Each structure stands twice: as C-alpha cells, then as structure tokens.
Amino acid sequence: MLERCKILVFFIVLIVTCFNTHAHPPNKQYSHEQFKAATLKIEAIENKALALEEAIKLFNHHSLSAEQIISLSTVTASLYYINDDLSGAIETLEYAINIATDSNLVATTASVQKTLGVMLHYSRLNARSLVAYNKAIALLDVKDEPLKVANLYNNIGLVHANIGELQQAMDNYSNAYALYEVHGSDVDRTDSYYNMAGLHLHLEHFDMAIKMITSVIRDRKLYQDKNGLANAYGDLGSAYLKAGNYQQAKVFYEKSLLSYINLKKNYFIASQHHNVAEVENLLGDTRSAIEHATLAITLSEMTGNSYSLIGGYHALAVAQYLDGDFDAAYKNIISSLALAQEKQISDWANDYLGLKALIQSARGETKAGLFNLMQSIERLHREKSDKLSRQIVRYQDKTEANELARKLESLKQREELATQQRYFVVFVLLLLLIIVFTFYRRHIHLKLQRRLTRLVAQRTNELELLADDLKQANLVKGQFLANVSHEIRTPLTSIIGHAQSLVSRDVTGKNDDAKVILRNSIHVSAILNDILDLSSIEVNKLKISYQMQELHVLVEEIRLLYHSAAKQKGIELIIDHQQAAPLQVYTDPTRLKQILINLCSNALKFTHHGHIKISLSVVDNHFIFKILDTGIGIKSETFRAIFERFTQADSSINRRFGGSGIGLYLSLELAHMMGGDISVVSEVNEGSEFTLTLPCLNNSAYDEERCQSPSLPLASPNNVSLQGTVLLAEDHDDNRQLITRLLTALGLHVIQAHDGDEAIRLCEKHQPDLILMDIQMPNIDGIDALNALRKREFTQPIIAFTANSVANEFDYYLELGFDDCLSKPIDEVKFAKTISHYLNQHVPKEAQAMLSNIDFSDLIDEFISSLPDEHQHLLSLVAVSDYDGIYRLVHRLSGAASMFGFEVMATLGREISTKIHEDELNNISSLLQKLLAMMAQTSAANKL
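-> structure tokens emitted (944 positions)
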C-alpha cells in the first residue's frame, strides 16, 4: 500500500511539474550537465530504496525538458524494478512513452518501448513483452536503423522461445542474423549465434547447443566480453546439466560464478550459487550444496532476485532431505512453494510439490505425502495437456480463420444476393464451424489424454528397468573398487615398508629394498595404466598408432620379461616360432605387447607346475599368437564372463590370486580396435589356450607386401654416424646442452638458438639441413618462428620439440605445419630414427648404444645447482601473483626436469602450467607449495 502511495505521489508531482512548465515557464532551464550529474549521483547510491526517493525529488525541485523527463523516467523505472515493484516500473515507462509520443520523439519512443519489453520479459509477462517489442519495431525503419531492428528481432525471438513458439523464434533469429551479416559486427553475429544456441537448448538438442555455446565462449574471450562470457558459462552449465553431464555442469557453473564475482554483480552471483547448489545435490555433495544454497538465499534477498530465492530454498531443502534433516527440509520447501505461488511460477510450484511429498513421507506423514504426490502428478498431467491443447487450438484457429476468410470473400462477390440471405448464410456457416470445432477439439483432447497415459506407463516401465540396471552397475562397481583397492594396497604396503627401511637403515641392504620398491611401483603403475586405457576406450579417445614391428623381437622381449618369474615357480617357458625370421608386420607394437603381457601374466599367475608355451604363426594373411598353459583351467560356462569388465571366473579367484578383473576385457577391446579377436579353449585342472588373431594390415608406404622386412634399414658397417647441420632452438640452457650432446654423438654439427627470434636469424644465415624447434620460448615462440620461416620460403624439415606429449597435441602441431613431433623426455631410439629419416640417411648401427652410454652427470649437476635461483625467482613471482611469469618459468622447469629424470617435479610443473593455461586458479597455491618444496628438497639432497 505504501508503495502504491509513492507511485501516486510521483505522478502527481509529474503532472504539477508539467502544468507549471506550461503555465509559468521558469527563468532558467535545468542544464544538461546539471541533469547528468544528478542522475549519476542517484545511480551511485547503493541503497536503491533511497535512490528511488531521490529520483522522485528530482522532478520536484527542477524544471525538466521532455527528453530529461523521459531519461529520468527510465532510471526511476529501473529503481522500481530493483525494489521489486514491477507495476511501478511499468507505469513509469508507459508515462515516458506518452511524453515521447506527444513530443514526436519517434526514436526515443521506440527505445523506451524496447526497455519496457525487456522488463516485461524478465518478469515472465511474455505476451505484454511481445506487444511492447512489436510497437518498438513498428516505429523503426530498417534502412535507417538496421542494428536496432536486428536487436529487436533477437529480443522477440527470445520471448517466442520462452513460450514454446520455436518456429517463430527461429524466424526472428534468422531475420536478426541476416541484418547482422550486412550491418553488424563480429560481436553482433556472435550474440545472434548465442541466441540460436539457446533455441537448440529449448529443443533439447544438447550436443548442438554445447558445441555452439562453446564457440560463443571462444569468441567472447577474444572480444574480452566479460559479461557475455559469464552468461555463456552459465548457459553451458545448463546445457551439460540437461544432458546429464553433472560434473561438466558444475565446472561451467563455477566458472560463471567466479566471473560474476569478479564483475561484482550480486544479482547474478545469487543465480549461479543456486545453480551450483542444484548440481552439487545431483553429485551427492550435500555439504557444498547447503553452502551455495545459503549464499544464494542471502544474496537473493539483498538484490530482489525472486527466482534464485525460490530455487535457493528448494536446493537447500533437497540437500537437507538427502542428509536426513527432514524438519529443516520441510520448512525450506514450504518457503520455496509459497514464493513460487506468490510469483505465479506454476511450473516450479508443480515440480517442487513432488519434493514436498517425499519429505512428508520421510517425516511419517504418509497420507499428506501421498496426497501431494498425486496432486503433483495431476498438475503435471494438466500442464502438459493444457500445453498440447493450446498448440492445437492455435493451429486450428489459424487454419479455420483462413478458411473462413476465403468463404467470406466468396460471399462478398455475390452482390446480387439480398442482405438478409447473406447474413443468414454467414450465421449458418459460423454455427456449423463452432459445432465442428467443439466436437473435433473434444476428440483431440481424448486422443491426447489416452496417448499421454500410454507414455506415462511406458516411461514408468523404462525407469524401473533403468533402476535395475543401475543397481547391478553399483554392485559391479563395488566389486571392482574392492579388487583395485586390494591390488593397489598390497604393493603399496611393500613400497612403504621398504621405503621406511631405506630411511632408517645405513647403506647396507638398500639395493634390495630399492628393487622391491621399483617392482611394486611398476605393478601399481600397470594397474593404473589399465584403468586409464579402459577409460579412454569407453569415451572413444584411445588411438591405435600403427608402425612396422619385427614379431620375433617382440616375442623375445616377452620371453625375457617372464623368464625369471617362470623359473622361480619351476615352470618351463617354451617359445615356438612357426614362421621364419624376420617377420615384419604393420601394427601397434605398444598395444600388441600390452595384450601379450596380460595373457602371459594370467598364464603365469594361474599355473603352478608344467609349462607355458608361446607360439607365433601366420595363416591366411593373419598373424596368430597362442598362449598355452597347464594351469587351473576355466569352466566353459564362464568363458563369456572372463572377458567382461571387472569380472573374474568366480569370486574366489580374487581372494586366491588377486587381480582387478579388467585385463582380459581391455585386451579384447584392444584386439577389436586393431581388427582382430581373442578366443579361449580350456578344461578345468588341465590348462587353457588363449589365441590372439590380428590381420597383416596394408601400410600406404608398403603397397607391395603386407608382412615384410623393415623400411628403414640399419646403416652398413661403414656407416657409423650421421652427417649434416641441425639448428636447435631451445630456451632452457640445460636442455639445450643435453640435446646438443645427443646430436653431436650422432656425428651432427649443431647450431644453438636461445629463442625463436634467434632461430630465424640463424636459419637465414646458415641454412641448416634440419631444425628442432621448442614450442614454448620467450620473445618469439616455436609456432610463430615456424610461420615466419615458411613465409621466408624455408623448405627444410622443422620438427616440434615439446613436453606436451598428448596425441591430439601432436596432431595440432602437424596441422600447423611442423613436419614431425618429438616429446620430452627423449626416447633415444625414436630420436635417432626421426633425425635419420629427415636427413635422408640410415640409422647408425650402434645409435641406441651410443646415446644410452652418454654421460649427462655434469648437466644434471648443473640443473640441480640452478634450482636455488629458480626457487627464489618462483617465490618472487608467487608473491606478486604474476601468473604469466609463473607459467613461463614452470613450463620451462618441467621440461628440463623431465629430460633429467625428475618426473615428480616435471609432473607438478605440467599440472600447474595446465591449470594456469585453462584459468583454473582455485587450487594452484597448494601445487606451487609442493613444487617449491620439491625444488628445495632436491637442491638440499644434492648438497648432502
């Protein structure tokens, strides 16, 4: 009531002011500068209720022009809206529209109409919002104001999308995009593209929406549109949430939250706290959900954000329900429902009623809970039915209106008929249409109701089946976690015990402890690698890398790997080569060896006496490995089960022999990815025979034969070194000296460059035969140096040298124009082969032996001695939060650490670099502390 009185006083003041302006013109008009200063002062007031009072006073004390009244009305309307007085805001804007219309200010009228439409849209008064937008667009000439018209088309499209009129939404977005294509900027086109992404989200095209919003985020980062970026992060979170990817939804909701915090926009901070709370509930982190929901409620009450206030109470109620605090949950869901009903948000009220029913049931109020559940279902059915009915009515109204117009036009052409006859015919037709429409609508309603009933029953059945599947999946997951926990804890116990022994013991006996630690560490690493490979397969990200492989060499590696273990158990290890050497095939050696290791490990594990036989043959253009053992054997009914995830032949196997249950499943998947298969024949207490069959694939480089000798021959006895000049561009001094030493050992002349700029100058001066280019360098990095050299028509091979050893990173560098990629730390064999290949020379015969025997101890000492300075430098960068400097130093340090065998330091450095690159700075301080501690510990240990 008090607010209504304020509005009445406000309009009385305006009327009196306008009357006095005409009746008694003031001596001096309120100047533009004075008016601007006064409005800026009002907008700067943090207490918006007080700011509204000051805006009303401004009309009281000064004579204003029509333009100033309109401008002040817009500010005042915004203050009314912030103070949760929508009617006051609308009446103020309508008053401004009347003044602009009376003053013939066409452009101003259109602008205020648009503002009114935006305010109505935010208040979910969609029909009135469309009226305001259409009035605004009618006042504008598209030839004179194409961008303003395009913006209005965008806004109209948003309203149509919100009310489910998706075709009209797409039509308006298309009109806007067409205008932006001709008259707009890249930012305008990005905004229009963003709106289309929102439409795909409405249509539940989640993959397309995610792809489009991701593109928008990339563009807005380029334009440094911080507000738009924060909004896009939130919508991408919503897309992932609706797609069921809750973890990704949380990531982008938190990015949006952090962006709004940096922008100090409490209204939207409240919204994102609510979104994060809802996702945390879905992820089961109720503690975090309660924290975010509480913040959402507090900030919503401060800013008047009704929707986040309602959602915050709901999220808090869900978290408390999941924690078993049913009384508190009931109190908060009641608050949420009351606010939703007060704000007439029926869809939220219907959704939340189901939660209320669950809470009542948990509190023992089963009768009330059942009543509310039935009421929720009834409302949802009614809402869906009403929505379908409205769509049908709109379609029928449009169709029948067109038919009626045609018939009326036909009647008008019969001018010779008497007026009474015309009216009678029209009356009969209208009556007939009404009757037909009534019966037809009833028929459609019944048909839709029956269909809806069938759909509900079908969905209920699907949910029951899904619940059964989830229950079974949970059982399998639990068994898997128990197996993996056992498999990892067992070697870890040995590692910890022997490590403690190393700490407390003198030099004597340390070598044995170190061997035990190494053996068990390798075992843990193998388990983790299997799990990671399994994850990569399930998301289709594991790639097969084909190359030529001599199978007899591979079999010999397997024999050497298991010879000692078999001898210790008293088991004979037999190798049966049924194909003459050499036998070269085009395959993935790493994955092939991984399969054979899994099969041989199982054979050794389950065989206590007798022998294990590994045979190799080629049949019908397929190479075949058979692993035969005389172990415990497998029951025929469990053949299928042993190749399933997390499964062993029976539950006693894990207790007796251990194992995670993923080895055979992973092996079979890898075999399938390489076009092959694994089969098994077994008898209990007699033994098992596993057969791996893989095709001899064609390699484009070897069209004549499938299984043949290698394409890159070793050097002749006289060819013991390479010849040529190599330019090495590497910014880290220790890395540069190490790589130079390797190249010099191969017989090559090396030119050193400290960065990309020096590399360009030295290339132009010396014209080297080959370039090794580090990616991350100061001044000019490796990518810019590559582009500069190619523009200067430098055609010699350029190889990327990087610590980013991920496959898709290599693909990216190859797409940029690098001839090949080498990773840090260096694989001596691959290093020698790659250098030889691009110099068009043979691999030196003793290349691996030469490179493996090079003494790097002085370089390692130099690297360790540089750590105190690097430690101090890093501390100074951390103190001033210079993340760009931290990124450059840590990336350089991790590359050198990896080269010299300090893998823990290298891993920490890579993780820090990745987090800075992806702008994820939340937990970076703990990683930096670990890295600093590792640097200090390494330096101190060297001094001892």
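The chain has 35 helices and twelve strands.
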